[in-house]
Amino acid sequence: MTRKTIIVACGTGIATSTVVAEKITEACKKENLHVNIIQCKVTEIKGYAENADLIVTTTILKDNFGKKSINALSLITGIGEEKVLEEIISELKK
């Protein structure tokens, strides 16, 4: 299976993106998916987007950079967390 690259971004590239990246990593391990996660600030996405397969953010993204993007704020709040993780895993399996 090929390794997919995911950009996980938040406002600072430190706080909520860390929590989201950890949850995505755990979910991918359960599904035996090999991923490379790039954690960054939302303002840095453009620099990484070309080589990414998926963009996951905890903020509103004004541009999708030509990639599928998923808002993962629910991975912070816990409300709807399972649904978002399923969406991420489904996208990675494509």
Automatic annotation (TrEMBL):
A single GO BP: phosphoenolpyruvate-dependent sugar phosphotransferase system
PTS EIIB type-2 domain boundaries: 4-94
InterPro entries: PTS_EIIB-like_sf, PTS_EIIB_2, PTS_EIIB_2/3
GO MF, one annotated term: protein-N(PI)-phosphohistidine-sugar phosphotransferase activity
Keywords associated with the record: Transferase
PROSITE patterns tied to this protein: PTS_EIIB_TYPE_2
Listed SUPFAM superfamilies: PTS system IIB component-like
Keyword Transferase recorded: yes
Protein name: PTS system lactose/cellobiose-specific transporter subunit IIB
